[in-house]
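Continuing the series of single-chain predictions for the mutant panel. This is the parent chain; the variants come on the following pages.
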Amino acid sequence: MSEEKKIERSDKQETSQQSAVGSQHSATEKPSTSPQDPADNQQSATENMEVHKHPHHVTHKKKWGEYFLEFLMLFLAVFLGFLAENFREHQVEKERAKQYIFSFCEDLKNDTFRIKTLIKYDEDKIAALMGMYSCYDTVLKKPEATGCMGELVKYSRSNRSLVLTERTIRQLANAGGYRLLNKEDADSIIAYENAYKAYLDFQSTVFQTSQDNVRNTLNRLANFKVIAPLQLTTATFAGDTIGGKLIGSLFFKADPALINQWFNELALYLRTNNGQRNIMMQLNEKAVGLLRFYHDKYHIE
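Parent structure:
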């Protein structure tokens, strides 16, 4: 009896163990009742979502409007930069042009001082040379009475020329500064320079020829001992250091034909001095007019 009970008991234990294993196996085979993995849920949701491409994505294809907008923005940036640089250069050139005008006005002030001094010098010459008519009568009557010729020799032996202050004019020409000036300013400076060139042309042709003729004829007439003191003195910008008094009879030989020639040449010299004075007066009027013009336009003192 005891052995049969042991056999039955062992059979019951095996049956209970088999049913327990079977229940565990069936529990593992039911996926629908167990929770899903979070990673699987995210992947499934991603696959079900609608795909939207960002405009800056590498696979995004731009529309023509976007290209045009980018081009327009780039063009505006370059164009505005060009305008700013051009405005800056214009302001710099405008300031440089004004500096040229200021410098030219300083030159004009120097010129007007010199011109006025030379006009006074020529007027003194003209007044003295007007005495040639009475002196001619005296010398023809009495050849040894040449005292009146002293003043005529003094004012016909030399000349003083105008040297223009060309500092600014040369800078404008050499540095291309005329392009910085407006047309009215540039034309006024060029007109002034041309007026001075006309004066120089008169000086080197008509006036110089007249001056040489008077000197050459005087050299043929004059006694060296009498004329030498006058030749040793110098005519300066401030005035002549020579006096008009002769220490004896001027003539080496009283040749009436040569004396007459000298007085004729002296009369032409007087005429050319009048012409020179008139040209310088016109030049001075231009200089003063330009100073007034620039004073009103740029408030230059």
